[in-house]
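re: the backbone from monday

yeah here it is again, tokenized this time
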């Protein structure tokens, strides 16, 4: 399968449909995620974005179609196995261990990626784990908060922690679900820059959903637009911003809100 947007695809959701009873949430959608690029999936509420994200991640089964990851059909592969294959998902509501400190949360992610657990932490390669934890703290700007329990973090810091925990798993595909939801303008700018620094320049393949169009147009190289369960446009941010179908269906409202 080739990506008409340029570059070899890492993931293809091919002719995917999803019914909930009599409601057709996705109407035979084909989504291509090019390898080593940041892609965005946008559209109004109810367009089917969350359903498609769930199907890609393995938490929702499609009614028709298939999911191909790096040339392999994974449609019936459960979500936990997809994670082991290199998919990492950061959610709209940050998920971490609330009673753990920032450093402890990051350490747990590093250990998980290495296939180790807390009881074996003090065995071999402890220094390697600690070096990576310190590196992740520094690159995320969370060093000053290393000993703060995650439940006491501000919203922006919680999302940054979850993002850097996801990156600690060294994902081949990073799924970001509303990464700046609920953030102040300052937090949004910091998170956008963090995503760019961690994932830009071909360093990681990313698919994100986001309602803040400034964030989408700042980060994404390829934008796909869903409306009523169908893809109505796909292209560069410049092409999408000028597409009259997209402006009518979504951007006119999104740019105002």
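seq for it, each position gets an aa:
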């Amino acid at each position: 399968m080739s990506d008409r947007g340029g570059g070899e695809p890492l993931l293809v959701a091919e002719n995917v449909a999803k019914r909930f009873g009599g409601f057709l949430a996705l109407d035979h959608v084909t989504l291509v995620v090019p390898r080593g690029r940041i892609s965005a999936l946008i559209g109004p509420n109810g367009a089917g974005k969350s359903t498609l994200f769930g199907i890609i991640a393995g938490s929702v089964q499609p009614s028709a179609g298939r999911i191909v990851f790096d040339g392999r059909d994974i449609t019936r592969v459960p979500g936990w196995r997809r994670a082991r294959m290199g998919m990492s998902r950061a959610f709209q509501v940050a998920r971490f261990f609330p009673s753990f400190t920032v450093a402890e949360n990051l350490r747990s992610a590093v250990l998980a990626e290495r296939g180790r657990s807390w009881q074996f932490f003090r065995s071999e390669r402890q220094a390697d784990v600690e070096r990576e934890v310190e590196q992740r703290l520094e690159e995320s700007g969370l060093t000053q908060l290393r000993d703060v329990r995650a439940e006491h973090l501000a919203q922006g810091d919680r999302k940054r922690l979850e993002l850097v925990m996801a990156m600690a798993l060294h994902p081949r595909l990073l799924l970001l679900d509303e990464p700046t939801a609920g953030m102040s303008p300052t937090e949004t700018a910091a998170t956008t820059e963090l995503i760019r620094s961690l994932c830009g320049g071909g360093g990681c393949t990313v698919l994100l959903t986001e309602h803040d169009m400034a964030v989408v147009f700042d980060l994404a190289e390829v934008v796909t637009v869903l409306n009523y369960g169908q893809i109505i446009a796909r292209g560069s941010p410049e092409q999408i911003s000028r597409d009259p179908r997209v402006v009518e269906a979504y951007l006119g409202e999104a740019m105002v809100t």
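The chain has nine helices and ten strands. Strands lie at 9-20, 23-34, 38-42, 64-69, 72-73, 87-90, 173-177, 205-209, 222-227, 230-235.
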